[in-house]
Amino acid sequence: MEIEGPHEHNHRPHSTGFAGSTSASRCRLSDQFHFLTVAIKHGRTMDKLVASNSFPNIDVEHGNKEDLKDGLGQRPVLYMAS
User: Fold this and answer.
1) Cβ atoms < 10 Å from Cβ of 77
2) What predicted TM-score, i.e. pTM, was given to this entire model?
């Protein structure tokens, strides 16, 4: 039985990564861009939600006439309730 010694290889040197590494990188970069876009849109939506919950809700109602007991009798009124 004979043991082989070192011999020269006739193929090109090994590269890092795999053949589709640039396309995979582009896909990941594209995904990250989409995730960032969705996160920004979500942030803007949340800002609107916080703003809408921060302001009081004012309901405006009107009635025919009411005596405000100031000596002027009945007059048209506008109610504002929160």
Assistant:
1) 13
2) 0.44
CA 41 to CA 45: how far, in whole Å?
A: 6
Model pLDDT for residues 2-37, shown as the tens digit of each residue: 676 666 767 776 666 566 567 778 888 899 999 999
HSE of 43 in the Cβ direction (CA atoms, 13 Å)? 6
Total residues belonging to the chain = 82
Closest CA to 82 of 57, 51, 53: 57
Helix (H, G, I), strand (E, B) or coil at 60: strand
Please give the structure tokens belonging to residue 67. 């005596």
Number of helices (H), then strands (E), in the chain = 1, 2
d(C-alpha 82, C-alpha 77), whole Å: 17
Is the CB of residue 81 less than 8 Å from the CB of residue 59? yes
